Amino acid sequence: MRIQMISGTHVLLLRDADEARYLPIPIGPNEASAIAYHLQGITPERPLTHDTALRAIRALGASLREVRITEVREETFRARMLMVAPNGEEAELDARPSDAVALALRAEAPIFISAELLSTEGIVPEAAEEERLSLFRDFEFARRRGAPSSALVLLTEQCTTSGEGARAVQP
Fold it and tell me: What residues does each domain of the chain span?
């Protein structure tokens, strides 16, 4: 996972190493900051919205089981968050991918990307672009090597096929 600013727009960039595809998702500056802060291990003086939301979820005894980035509709990416109540009851909530990813990072919940979405919206960079995007290797799933979850980077190098047509990254 990487946040890039391309001509004034923040982009959440997810990579599927198995297929060498990148999924670029335009996101807002606040969500980009929330994701980047967490990935860099920066703790703001006051909690961010996503930190507060996760605290509220946990205070109620619930958990975020997983996030699914499912589709693009009317040029907008869509995501679903699977929540689990203390009694085991599940609820799916509609969410923006940026918010869902920011929460998933904090909750260390897996993120699933629809294989169809990756196929239709994913990009395969040309060789010249690949070098610029090689910065992913610097962040390559550092947690495997004992880095804290704040250093977690979601690359689908850790992908498994899960469910129908989903690519998964499990933190």
Answer: 2-169
pTM score above 0.85: no
Residues 25 and 1: their CA atoms lie apart, in Å, by: 11
Cβ(114)–Cβ(69) below 8 Å: yes
Q: Domain 2-169: which topology?
A: Bifunctional nuclease domain (3.10.690)
Q: Print pLDDT tens along the chain (171 aa).
A: 555 545 567 888 887 757 677 888 999 888 988 998 998 889 999 999 999 999 999 999 999 999 999 999 998 999 999 999 999 999 999 999 999 999 999 999 988 888 889 889 988 877 656 555 554 444 433 333 333 333 223 332 223 333 344 444 433
Q: In angstroms, rounded to a whole number, what is the distance separating the alpha carbons of residues 30 and 98?
A: 10
